[in-house]
Amino acid sequence: MNLPSKIPKPVIRRFSLYLRQLEALQVDRVATVSSHDLAQPFGFSDAQVRKDLGYFGQFGRPGVGYEVMPLIHRLRSILGTDSVSHILLVGAGNLGKAVTIYQGFRAKGFELVAVFDNDPGLIGRRVGQLPVQPMKDLAQTTSQHDATLAIIAVPVAAAQNVADQLVAVGVNGILNFAPTRLNPLPGVSILDVDIGTELEQLNFLVNKNSPEISDQKEILIVDDSEASVVFLAQIVEDLGHRFRVARNGEEANKAIKKSRPDLVLLDLMMPRKSGISVFQEMKEDRVLRKIPIIVVTGASEITGVNLGTGTEVSKETSENDDARQLGVILHEILKGLTPDGFIEKPIEPTLLSKKIVELLS
Question: Is the pLDDT at 317 greater than 50, yes or no?
Fold first, then answer.
């Protein structure tokens, strides 16, 4: 299938999570799922799900959601697991043996077809269901099985040499369990999995006295426009931060009180409760008033009054007395509330990014 030329790695990681969740829903005989329900188990937003899937075209139907079985097939096709991929394993020691008895390969669209080692004492023995082959058989076996993926489970000193040998026989995807980082190889994708390092990170995270290890902040996007949410989410992600989404003032109030975001991007004109009301309630709270707010609005164009300066911006719109009067009132309210930033729609990404960085620094 034709794929976009540039896809962020986190998107592919999330696809694997979406697929796992969909397969669980399939077992429970669930026919359809919403983007919200697909995102919720992982702490993502529904906008994140729609944005991720949007890299590959149209999936769900408005008011219905996503059909579970068709989406499973599409994701498997995208991830390349709709057909069986053959895998080689180099290293028949303890870790290699553990890999060979893993039962999940076939279910995920993979088959371990050969095991290699250079230890004469291991060659010829069976590991799992497979005999251990000498490295001199690597080229022939790789060609025989048309294998392009391999797992390395060898000591550090041998890892790079093994990787070079695998690439030489046509392998272009390597999962490396050796506790070392392999050198980048042209046209080859490498994933390094250092179990010791991962355990160190885990130990750090569970230590209650550990300081923050990331400058990543949480930004709440409050907007009822899907296009605006997607646009703003991209800016937030590009800056290395995470985001949550609220579609109206009521959702915003709940999200702000629950998660205490580091910054709020606030639209003014929304259903069920306006952004102005959200702003006022935050300013009245001794804790929430400390959260910076950037007003991101298109209300100036609607009313014909620049809500930041109070000046007329559109002769045509300002001839509508009701709209102009609303603009004047909104300007006066905002002037009293003093937002930390004010961005007009259509949004200038550079301007908004600069303001976000300034407020979060």
Answer: no
Q: What is the average pLDDT value for the chain, to the nearest integer?
A: 84
User: Order of strands, edge to edge, in the sheet holding 293-297?
Assistant: 242-246, 218-222, 263-266, 293-297, 341-344
The answer to whether 182 and 160 have CB atoms below 8 angstroms apart is: yes
DSSP codes of every residue in 131-191: EEEPGGGHHHHHHHHT--EEEE-S-HHHHHHHHHHHHHTT--EEEE-SSSPPPP-TT-EEE
**Which of residues 34, 63, 79 is at a domain's end?**
79
pTM of the model: 0.53
Does 291 share its domain with 159?
Answer: no
pLDDT of residue 318: 46
Note the pLDDT of residue 142.
Answer: 96
Specify the DSSP class assigned to residue 118: -
In a domain, 2, yes or no: no
Structural domain boundaries enclosing 356:
218-360
Give the residue from 141, 59, 147, 64 showing the smallest Cα distance to 110: 147
Two tokens, residue 201 = 């990170």
Answer yes or no: do 153 and 91 share one domain.
yes
Kindly state whether residues 256 and 348 are assigned to the same domain.
Answer: yes
